[in-house]
Design a protein that fits this description.
5-stranded parallel β-sheet, 15 strands, alpha/beta, 37% helix, 315 residues, single chain, two-stranded antiparallel sheet, 11 helices
């Protein structure tokens, strides 16, 4: 039996069984994929693209966590695999993706899929399901760069937001003080993560390489976001839709750059805008220089997904 929850007007299906194995093209919204090794900035890029184009960030990690939390049928199957020391089966992972992208928000708005497919088998399952993508972006960076990024990666235990102490730190000292290093980011685990990725991606690259776009992630996150955004705009998929471009608000009005901060009281950051009304009493704020561009902290939803339990919660 397939259970469903209705949250914010969106229906979420938890069951794993479905009579339909193929999703018709007409039932799919415009989909994009971001792939890359651990530490390449996939999730940050996906979140920025989701905000910029008004599309849904589909993160399988968040979806699996929600299934585990609410003890769904998928969650129970995933838990058995995890408790046995394995990982979530590929077939289950792709079922989670299928269940998510057929929902109306993904169909109407489009979506960006974060880090899937991870191997040839997942790619085959997606293909068999009739799931197609507009563009596949493959991030790459040197191994020593990835190791350094993973070493400084931290997570906020309160909202699950991921930061990097060197490249993308939080603005607030309060947030910084409570950040935690994930178990998977200790030195030994980092080596294993990168080794496992290398083994799986070599075969996957042979399959999807000709239809994917290689993106150099060994630079500031802002530069990566800008390049990928321009490529997405060039597809014409979102023609006529309000897009948050650099230097341009979604309604088409001009923004000022950080160089104009002193003259007009507005600074643009990697995570949003800080605005101080000219002539008004200026409250003290702190801007953190982050790898060449301004970073600031704001509350954001994780993967644009809400789930309903005893109370609506964000995972």
């Amino acid at each position: 039996m397939v259970a469903a929850f209705l949250c914010s007007g969106v229906k979420f299906f938890w069951g794993v069984r479905s009579r339909r194995t193929c999703i018709c093209r007409a039932e799919q919204g415009p989909g994009f994929v971001v792939l890359g090794p651990p530490g390449s900035g996939k999730t940050h890029l996906c979140k920025q693209l989701a905000e910029r184009f008004g599309i849904v960030h589909v993160a399988t990690d968040d979806l699996i966590k929600a299934h585990l939390k609410y003890h769904t049928e998928i969650g129970e199957q995933a838990e058995k695999s995890l408790e046995a020391g394995g990982r979530v089966p590929d077939s289950l992972m792709i079922q989670v993706v299928k269940n998510r992208i057929i929902l109306q928000d993904c169909v109407d708005k489009g979506y960006v899929l974060d880090g899937v497919p991870q191997n040839i088998f997942q790619e085959q399952l997606l293909s068999e399901a009739g799931i197609t993508f507009i563009r596949i972006f493959m991030l790459h960076a040197k191994r020593n760069v990835l190791e350094k990024r993973l070493h400084y990666r931290r997570v906020d235990p309160e909202d699950g937001e991921i930061y990097n102490l060197l490249y993308l730190p939080p603005m607030s000292r309060e947030v910084t003080d409570r950040l935690e290093q994930q178990e998977e980011d200790d030195e030994q685990q980092i080596m294993e993560q990168l080794a496992n990725y290398g083994q799986e991606v070599s075969a996957l690259w042979e399959l999807i390489g000709p239809r994917s776009i290689a993106i150099n992630a060994d630079r500031s996150p802002a530069d990566v976001v800008k390049e990928v955004s321009l490529m997405i705009e060039a597809t014409g998929v979102f023609d006529g839709r309000a897009i948050k471009r650099d230097g341009m608000e979604s309604n088409g009005t001009s923004e000022k750059t950080t160089e104009d901060m002193e003259s007009n009281g507005t600074a643009k950051g990697a995570r949003g805008n800080v605005t101080i009304t000219p002539g008004a009493e200026k409250a003290p704020i702190t801007l953190i220089r982050c790898d060449g561009y301004m970073c600031e902290r704001e509350s954001v939803q994780s993967s644009d997904i809400k789930f309903r339990g005893a109370a609506t919660e964000q995972v």
